[in-house]
Design brief:
The protein is mainly alpha-helical. The protein is 72% helix and 3% strand. The protein has one domain.
Length: 418
């Protein structure tokens, strides 16, 4: 049993699963911010009920997603001690900031938002949700800063054979960072939009009692998905402009790839073929582009929102329902292209993946792989089961935001603590 192969499989599995949670979190929290802001401004009950319904699904995903994120943190020390030793002085800073943002600020804001219903002024309560959203995107921001350094190392100096951070600002100006971060955030918006539109379409197909409620969320979902797909496609194609420059063995014509691989072989030993990524790495990119083009057809549904033609025709509702998994599949394909495309490097041009793996036995690594994979699969299955269950139940009386008074008693005026 090859420890390197098992470590790579474990990282690929756990990261892929965690990434799906992140996409739902970012996508739904953006929709929630719009819904609650609309409720505070218009005071229409429909927006309050929508905030409570979609907020419940968001919280299910958030709670289970946090657990998958902890596994990600453990892996760096357990399986990739070579990376931690060599580049920890650089990537440790953004990852530490991300941990503070996600596990302290974001969780604090979210806890106050959950328990602040009917206890805080509406404006204060809304500000807490905005805080949750901002810190959620800030968390993704710092993760992408660290990942972009692995893709294109900048702002470092080598001392005693290890990397040290020399220019923190260079991490933020990294050519591999800005457009890629935009690509990820709009991918999350696409996921959130299609999830909202798909679940709303399901209720409209079944003709559940809350027609007006899901009619409203369907429109919001279609508009969100349209914005997301247009922007994520634009940011995706924009990366082709510089990718061949910063990772010549990954993207570009075959002559440039071979020239870069030959240069690496001359500097680090071995043959040029050792420095080329797997031949099939272009397949995930191709599938992602195909799915993105299919998802882009949602833009043509926008005119059908006029006079509810999208509901009357019914066929678009089924299209939206069956399209829900596609943004997730496209996201995984994109992640595979970004990560596997830089192989055999874990820090591109500086450290090989084989030099970063922890010196543990194959048996130990296998046990780690099976244990963590089973845990994350359990969390993922539980997450989708609970989301499907609560989504199917509808928005009759979501537990989130339920008045703290007993339903059998006359509710007293709201207690204002802020």
């Amino acid at each position: 049993m090859d420890p390197l192969l098992l470590a790579r499989l474990q990282f690929a599995t756990t990261t892929s699963i965690h990434f799906l949670f992140v996409l739902v979190t970012l996508g739904l929290v953006t929709v929630l911010v719009y819904l609650q802001t609309a409720w505070v401004i218009t005071k229409k009950p429909v927006y309050e009920r929508l905030t409570r319904f979609w907020g419940t699904l968001y919280l299910i995903n958030y709670v289970l997603g946090i657990a998958t994120g902890l596994v990600m943190e453990f892996q760096f020390g357990l399986n990739w001690s070579g990376l931690s030793h060599y580049a920890g002085n650089v990537v440790g800073a953004p990852l530490a900031i991300e941990t503070l943002v996600a596990f302290f600020l974001e969780s604090t804001f979210l806890g106050m938002w959950i328990f602040g219903w009917h206890r805080l002024r509406r404006g204060v309560h809304l500000a807490l949700l905005w805080g949750v959203a901002i810190t959620a995107y800030a968390s993704a921001f710092w993760v992408m800063v660290a990942n972009s350094f692995l893709q294109h190392p900048v702002g470092y100096e080598v001392r005693d054979g290890v990397l040290h951070l020399a220019d923190f600002g260079a991490l933020l100006r990294n050519q591999s960072f800005g457009i890629a971060f935009g690509h990820v955030t709009f991918a999350a918006l696409t996921v959130g939009g299609f999830l909202v539109a798909g679940i709303s379409a399901w209720h409209l197909i079944r003709r559940t009692a809350d027609y007006e409620l899901f009619r409203t969320s369907l429109r919001i979902g279609v508009v969100t998905a349209s914005i997301g797909t247009v922007m994520v496609t634009g940011f995706g194609y924009a990366q082709f402009g510089y990718l061949g420059t910063i990772q010549p063995t990954k993207f570009g014509d075959e002559h440039d790839k071979m020239a870069a691989a030959t240069d690496f072989a001359a500097r680090f030993g071995g043959s040029a073929a050792d420095y080329l990524p797997p031949e099939w790495v272009g397949a995930p990119l191709g599938f992602m582009i195909i799915i993105a083009n299919l998802l882009g057809l949602v833009v043509f549904l926008l005119p059908l929102l006029f006079r509810d033609w999208i509901i009357r025709m019914r066929a678009p509702l089924f299209m939206l329902l069956f399209a829900v998994p596609l943004p997730f599949v496209a996201a995984i394909f994109g992640w595979l292209f970004r990560e596997i495309g830089r192989q055999p490097w874990i820090v591109y041009g500086l450290q090989k993946t084989s030099d970063a793996v922890s010196p543990v036995s194959g048996g130990t690594m296998l046990a780690s792989f099976l244990g963590f994979t089973a845990l994350l699969l359990t969390l993922a299955i539980t997450d989708w089961y609970l989301i499907a269950r609560y989504a199917h139940a509808g928005a009759a009386d979501p537990s989130l935001g339920r008045h703290y008074e007993s339903p059998t008693t006359e509710p007293r005026p709201e207690r204002v603590l802020a």
